[in-house]
């Protein structure tokens, strides 16, 4: 059990994250930028992250840096290879010039990967049909799992070469490691299926490989599902046990707590409106027709409230001593202070910073007035823009 004293921590105070010191405890969460049409860094991507860095965050997170070409959710995403390093170095230099740190989210999308645009087979615990790519993911072999594990280590080393301060290992949203954790998706009969201990081997293995690859040169964090929000998906008790194993393994400097399934229930992570019309408009027929007809079942709507994942995250805070990052519905100083009072070490923000990249500076300048509120309306229409150019449809940011 966590026995940390209940001492108030200022969210704007400097904080250690492994070997890195952040200027505050506010992290720009990984949200796909749709700014890498050739799977390489662009000026657009640099600007996307420079704005919140200049706007006051302690660290910004680049999403999504796949560990292999077949591990991307779409073929225009960055995958970690030597050709990407010069551009990534330009990106990290630009963020450091603004006084912020920068993390690379690394992972393999597994069954969420778009085999059609990747021009490479997707992987899953068992053969699986992805309706978005209209392709089957094939069952990952032992050799595939070993190769993906090595690819994580290689991606982490390239992140060091590129000047990143941290990597975030993606263990959530039913991407590959998360799909192995899921009782619903993982129906294997070998050493990677059945018991939770077996299903957790991929997640623990890739984290261990990443830590072994980078040592203490940079921080290592991970994003872990507390729950999939899906019947027969990852239950809370199992996720807490996985988090305990990750803590015991000693490979992580912090754990970011998330929820939801990109395959089955994506809005469980976001809460707010379900913009079905906008999602349908982002695709061509027949997929757009399918979204219009069945979108209410896939894009289930959850009412927005501040700190909407806090109740679940409290259970992890009670069972773990490692640093935890609270995500989900953090848009103002009161919610940040609540997270600190509840014992969380960092907060992660997504949509609010997309709408207003300078929000953190304005909150800091507001001082005790606590009057600054995010312009984000939680309409979630920004989510439909990730297929073209990610931006807030309310404010037009990041430009």
UniProtKB/TrEMBL annotation:
<keyword id="KW-0285">Flavoprotein</keyword>
<keyword id="KW-0560">Oxidoreductase</keyword>
<protein>
    <submittedName>
        <fullName>NADH:flavin oxidoreductase</fullName>
    </submittedName>
</protein>
<dbReference type="GO" id="GO:0016491">
    <property type="term" value="F:oxidoreductase activity"/>
</dbReference>
<dbReference type="GO" id="GO:0010181">
    <property type="term" value="F:FMN binding"/>
</dbReference>
<dbReference type="InterPro" id="IPR013785">
    <property type="entry name" value="Aldolase_TIM"/>
</dbReference>
<feature type="domain" description="NADH:flavin oxidoreductase/NADH oxidase N-terminal">
    <location>
        <begin position="11"/>
        <end position="248"/>
    </location>
</feature>
<dbReference type="InterPro" id="IPR001155">
    <property type="entry name" value="OxRdtase_FMN_N"/>
</dbReference>
<dbReference type="InterPro" id="IPR051799">
    <property type="entry name" value="NADH_flavin_oxidoreductase"/>
</dbReference>
<dbReference type="Pfam" id="PF00724">
    <property type="entry name" value="Oxidored_FMN"/>
</dbReference>
């Amino acid at each position: 059990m966590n026995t940390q004293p209940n001492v108030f921590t200022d969210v704007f105070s400097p904080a250690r994250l492994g070997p890195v010191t952040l200027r505050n405890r506010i992290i720009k969460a990984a949200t796909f930028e749709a700014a890498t049409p050739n799977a390489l860094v662009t000026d657009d991507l640099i600007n996307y992250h420079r704005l919140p860095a200049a706007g006051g965050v302690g660290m910004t997170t680049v999403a999504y840096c796949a560990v292999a070409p077949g591990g991307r959710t779409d073929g225009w995403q960055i995958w970690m290879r030597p050709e990407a390093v010069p551009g990534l170095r330009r990106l990290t230099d630009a963020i450091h010039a603004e006084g912020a740190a920068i993390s690379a989210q690394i992972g393999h999308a597994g069954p969420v990967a778009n085999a059609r645009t990747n021009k490479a087979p997707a992987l899953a615990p068992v053969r699986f049909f992805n309706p978005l790519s209209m392709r089957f993911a094939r069952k990952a072999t032992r050799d595939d799992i070993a190769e993906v594990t090595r690819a994580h280590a290689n991606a982490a080393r390239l992140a060091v070469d590129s000047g990143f301060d941290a990597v975030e290992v993606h263990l959530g949203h039913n991407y590959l490691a998360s799909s192995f954790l899921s009782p619903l998706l993982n129906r294997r009969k070998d050493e990677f299926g059945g018991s939770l201990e077996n299903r957790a081997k991929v997640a623990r293995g890739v984290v261990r490989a990443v830590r072994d690859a980078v040592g203490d040169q940079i921080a290592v964090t991970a994003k872990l599902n507390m729950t999939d929000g899906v019947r027969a998906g990852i239950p809370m008790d199992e996720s807490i046990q996985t988090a305990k194993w990750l803590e015991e393994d000693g490979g992580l400097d912090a754990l970011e707590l998330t929820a939801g399934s990109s395959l089955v229930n994506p809005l469980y992570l976001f809460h707010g409106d379900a913009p079905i019309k906008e999602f349908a408009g982002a695709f061509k027929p027949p997929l757009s027709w399918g979204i219009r007809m069945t979108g209410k079942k896939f894009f289930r709507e959850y009412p927005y409230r501040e700190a909407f994942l806090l109740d679940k995250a409290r259970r992890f805070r009670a069972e773990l001593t490692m640093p935890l990052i609270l995500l989900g519905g953090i848009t103002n100083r009161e919610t940040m202070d609540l997270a600190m009072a509840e014992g969380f070490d960092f907060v992660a923000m997504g949509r609010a910073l997309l709408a207003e990249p300078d929000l953190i500076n304005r909150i800091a300048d507001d001082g005790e007035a606590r009057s600054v509120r995010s312009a984000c309306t939680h309409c979630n229409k920004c989510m439909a823009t990730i297929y073209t150019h990610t931006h807030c449809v309310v404010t037009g940011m990041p430009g």
